[in-house]
Amino acid sequence: QKEVEQNSGPLSVPEGAIASLNCTYSDRGSQSFFWYRQYSGKSPELIMFIYSNGDKEDGRFTAQLNKASQYVSLLIRDSQPSDSATYLCAVRGEFSGGYNKLIFGAGTRLAVHP
Amino acid sequence: DAGVTQSPTHLIKTRGQQVTLRCSPKSGHDTVSWYQQALGQGPQFIFQYYEEEERQRGNFPDRFSGHQFPNYSSELNVNALLLGDSALYLCASSSRGELSGNTIYFGEGSWLTVV
């Protein structure tokens, strides 16, 4: 079992719709969870991070965390063509020792069509 | 305030050769991590340096080695290159004392092609 799993996609949504991206993780001791956006040929860009169970909203983005189910998701409201990218889920484990080691999923490719 | 800078941005090497990639962390950061991202995959953790020592290491062979200098900059060295080493190599900088996720910054990466 991979440590962080994501559906590779592509996830295709029409412009203006809600895009829902999902991620599961295996380390029950994981403490911090991150969503990165990566455009083709570019480096990852942090969108959101979440530590506590529940929802965290930032503009059009909402991260949801359920530690009991070991599940984290990202919702993108009013999706725009410029949101088309690969979205990477990353987890910082319990035993990182304070050194900020991240474990990434393989990413979900999102395509927003006009 | 400069962010994380990496060099070179692109390079092509032949199998069996050696390569050195360089990273300067964001001002105020003291920890440098290196990741390898193969095409279609997420970044994979190679190792992390703090106080000029390797602190954590991922599942990579000894052909991958690194160094951190007193000014916190870092190098990643890969010996005996294989075709499978072709990837985007990412440097991430952070502060040892800061555990918030929003303080991890990635550089633009170095694209390595092994032919």
List keywords for this structure.
heterodimer; A: 114 residues; mainly beta; 5-stranded antiparallel β-sheet; 11 strands; globular; B: 115 residues; 7-stranded mixed β-sheet; 4-stranded antiparallel β-sheet; 0% helix
What does this structure look like?
The complex is a heterodimer of chains A (114) and B (115). Chain A has 114 residues and is mostly beta strands. Chain A has no helices and 11 strands. Chain A has strands at residues 4-6, 11-14, 19-25, 32-38, 45-50, 54-58, 61-66, 71-76, 85-92, 102-104, 108-113. The mean pLDDT of chain A is 91. Chain B is mainly β. In chain B, strands 2, 4, 5, 6, 9, 10 and 11 form a 7-stranded mixed β-sheet that branches. Chain B has a 4-stranded antiparallel β-sheet with strand order 1-3-8-7, with no helix packed on it. In chain B, a hairpin with a 2-residue loop joins strand 5 and strand 6.
What is the fold's blueprint, element by element?
The complex is a heterodimer of chains A (114) and B (115).
Chain A lengths: L3 E3 L4 E4 L4 E7 L6 E7 L6 E6 L3 E5 L2 E6 L4 E6 L8 E8 L9 E3 L3 E6 L1
Parallel strand pairs in A: 2-11
Antiparallel strand pairs in A: 1-3, 3-8, 4-5, 4-9, 6-7, 7-8, 9-10, 9-11
Chain B lengths: L4 E3 L2 E4 L5 E6 L6 E7 L6 E7 L2 E5 L6 E5 L5 E5 L8 E8 L10 E2 L3 E5 L1
Parallel strand pairs in B: 2-11
Antiparallel strand pairs in B: 1-3, 3-8, 4-5, 4-9, 5-6, 7-8, 9-10, 9-11
> What's the mean pLDDT score of chain A?
91
With helices defined by DSSP (H or I, 4 residues minimum), what is the helix count of chain A? 0
Q: What is the molecular shape of chain A?
A: globular
Q: State the helix count of chain B.
A: 0
Shape of chain B: globular
- In terms of DSSP E residues, the strand content of chain A is over 45%
Q: How would a textbook summarize the main sheet of chain A?
A: 6 strands, mixed
Give a brief description.
The complex is a heterodimer of chains A (114) and B (115). By secondary structure, chain A is mostly beta strands.
